[in-house]
Amino acid sequence: MLIVDKEGILIRYNVKMEKSMTPEDAAAELYPADELIRPIAEAIFEGEEDDVIEGLEAAIAAGKDPVALIDDALMVGMKVVTDLYDQGVIFLPNVMMSADAMLDGIEFCKEQGGSAPKPKGKVVVHVAEGDVHDIGKSIVAALLRANGYEVVDLGRDVPVDEVIAAVKKESPMMLTGTALMTTTMYAFKEVNDRLMEAGLNLPFQCGGGAVNQDFVSTYALGVYGEEAADAPKMADAILAGKDLEALRTEFHKH
Amino acid sequence: MAVNRFTTMAYSDADEMVFGNAKKPVKTGLDLEIGAGYTTAEVNYAPRPEAGETQEKLVNEYQRITKDIMSRMVQVGFPSVVLETEHVQQMTNNPEWGAAVAHAQKTIMEEYYEEYGIKCALRHTPGDIRENKDYMELRGDKLNVVIESFEQVAEAGADLLSIESMGGKEIFDYAVLRNDIPGMLYAIGCLGTMDMDFLWQEIAKVAQQKNVTAAGDTDCAQANTAMFIAGGLLDKNLAHTLAIIARSLAAPRSLAAYESGAVGPGKDCGYENIIIKAISGMPMSFEGKTSTCAHSDVMGNLIMQCCDLWSNESVEYHGEFGGTTVQCWAESLNYDCALMNTALKSGNEKILRDLLMASDRFRDPQSYILAYDNAYKIGQAIVKDGDDIYLRAKNAAVECCNLLNNSEGLDMTKFELGALAKATAELDGLTSESEAFMSESMEKYKAEVAVFKPENYAL
Q: Whole-prediction pTM value?
């Protein structure tokens, strides 16, 4: 069998460029100093639901307001996670596990306090009609929630009528659509046309599988999201006042 | 159809495996023999989005695609070709649509065969539509539609029957995003295999009745999901060491088709097919550098090492400078096959195989494990407990970890090594009792995954 030294044939750039700092070291630099808040942030980073609840109980027992803890502890811990993911220090499964722990914590705080703080904004997510491939949509929803957005998840194989009705009812700041197949993504054009007919001119972020920038550029409200991680960035850009043209300039990379 | 598990290897050692030759070649279609001393291109395509509006538009689109491919084949002088039509959902949900497409395609292929003598075959791959908006529905009414689709395309001219079955995916999607190795094992190795045992006996029955070939499956729904989430070297969505553990788990799962009556060629996107070829001796289709039109991978040359069919995965039909997309990619595939066939005729096939393998061997943990020598070792671990679907999947994952932990020449990041160490420890801690693992997993995932319905697996 032929084994050839890899020098000059390939470079594992991920090994070459790897940061010397471990994820734990990087996270430690970002944790809040407050002795009651820090354990909650650490538990979020570790994705340990039980430890999150334990930390919240201790903070509430010490006099912290349960509803305020959502923004002051849970979202702070989650920001450590999303910042490190954006910097390429940690992987997506860490974000997913942290998001699970954060959502458990939010539910606990809501039960304890009886209310919830206002989210940054509302986003409706769906998978195109005829398409049942929904892992991309699940990632988009988790990343949006992890970044403080309220997500209305319509699920998979969602009829166009249902998408339009949800947008009318929820008045979201953004709609997302994912599709794996070239034939199902055609539904996005219909969603676009029906939104425009109804005067609902909101950004419609589309991505996944066979979806590409050229296709999304053919309808007026479409903005191409190449990566799931673009979803919260696009929502942030909308909050910052960027219009459709500006979103396309920023997110259409090809 | 009975289920006959593999408990021995078809090849006595890894070096015996080459491209274009399989221990059990398959005769099919119009004078074609797969794995019988030559390689053949398998061209795959997707209609333009608007073509799916009506049956008539769709049939016209596939007629154009088929004519374009066949004409380019004879214009450049290629001796054989396989066309694969992966159904868009309309074609499986309306079996008469799929049949109309198969008939139209086969009619054109027969004309070219009669006029030019070009050896060819048509593979049809109905979609696995066995689910509704909220849940998998693996054994309900949708199954009947899938089987009817197989029956109708077989009657209408399809020579090779395949599917990309989805059993276990509801657990896998949950597990892979949480680095949950036991969950991936349960999803792919156990639930996936159980569903394939059930489904492939039905498909093999159709193939036997219609006198066509029950070809094979792929773990596209799970192992390819892991591979795509893992992405390139700089992506941070899944450690590549976990992606290759998922792939190793996929081998005993996709093997189940051949234990229930399929005979090959396995489906192109089953990168696990190299392990399956070592175990079964059946011909396999692969894709790599010539499927960059559909997706990127990190083993474009290596995965060609032992192919019998060489595929482009899928390309949307439209125009390019060099013709339509299907013409361009069919030509590229066939030039690769011409090179492999030249190597076979001149006795240089092992040299070319090794050059392909060596050029990607250290590119990634995924390519390292799928190098034919290491893939063969995974196969040996599978057949050691071939009769126990849990143990053989666990063995595959453990052997994958062992090979990576003892690798030479492969550089891995701290992330990849950390994920590997965690996976190794988790696998070490697993029971050796199938029943215990199955019942514990069922309880765990019934509680954690709302869309998991055990009745889909007769549990």
A: 0.94
Look at residue A186 in the predicted model and tell me its pLDDT: 85
Inter-chain contact A6–B233, Cβ cutoff 8 Å? no
DSSP B220: I
- Same domain as A98, residue A146: no
CA dist., res. A108 & res. A97, Å (int): 17
Q: Are residues A102 and A199 in the same domain?
A: no
Q: Which residue stretches of chain A have pLDDT < 70? A: none
Q: How far is B79 from chain A (nearest CA, A)?
A: 31
Chain A closest-CA separation from residue B420 CA (Å) = 14
CATH architecture label of B14-457:
Alpha-Beta Barrel (3.20)
Boundary-marking domain end, from A85, A113, A141: A113
Tell me, what's the pLDDT at B448? 95
Given this model, what pLDDT does residue A118 score?
A: 87
For residue B411, give the nearest of A3, A12, A138 by CB distance. A12
- Cβ within 8 Å, pair B48-A138: no
Residue B80 dihedral angles phi and psi, to the nearest 5°: -155, 155
The nearest alpha carbon in chain B to A184 belongs to B49
Q: Of the candidates A168, A176, A118, which has an alpha carbon nearest to the alpha carbon of residue A143?
A: A176
**Measured between alpha carbons, how far is residue B356 from residues A236, B32, B314, B340 in Å?**
46, 26, 22, 11
Answer yes or no: do A146 and A99 share one domain.
no
* Residues B320-357 pLDDT 10s: 999 999 999 999 999 999 999 999 999 999 999 999 99
pLDDT in tens, B404-439: 999 999 999 988 999 999 999 999 999 999 999 999
Residue A39's CATH number: 1.10.1240.10
Cross-chain Cβ contact B411/A15 below 8 Å: yes
In sequence order, the 6+-apart residues with CB closer than 8 A to the CB of A186 are B49, B50, B52
Flag residues of chain B having pLDDT under 50: none
pLDDT value at residue B329: 98
Q: Which of A91, A97, A138 sits opposite B237 (nearest CB)?
A: A91
Distances in Å between the Cα of B376 and the Cα atoms of B279, B283, B420 are 8, 15, 21
| HSE-up (13 A, CA, CB side) for residue A43 | 22
- In chain A, what residues touch B187 (CB-CB under 8 Å)? none
Domain limits, chain B: 14-457
How big is the CA angle at B200 (ends B82 and B249), to the nearest 5 degrees? 90
**So what's the pLDDT on residue A209?**
83
Assess whether A178 and A206 both reside in one domain.
yes
Q: Answer whether A91 sits within 8 Å of B415, measured CB to CB.
A: yes
Query: For residue A156, which residues of chain B lie inside 8 Å, CB to CB?
Result: 133
In this structure, is residue A1 part of a structural domain?
no
d(CA B408, CA B427): 22
Among chain B residues, the shortest Cα distance to A131 is held by B89
Most B-contacting residue of A1, A84, A134 (CB-CB within 10 A), to test interface: A1
Rounded to 10°, the helix B95-116/B55-76 angle is 20
**Domain boundaries, position A180:** 121-251
Nearest CA in chain B to A210: B294
Tell me: the pLDDT tens digits for B205-251?
Answer: 999 999 999 999 999 999 999 999 999 999 989 999 999 999 999 99
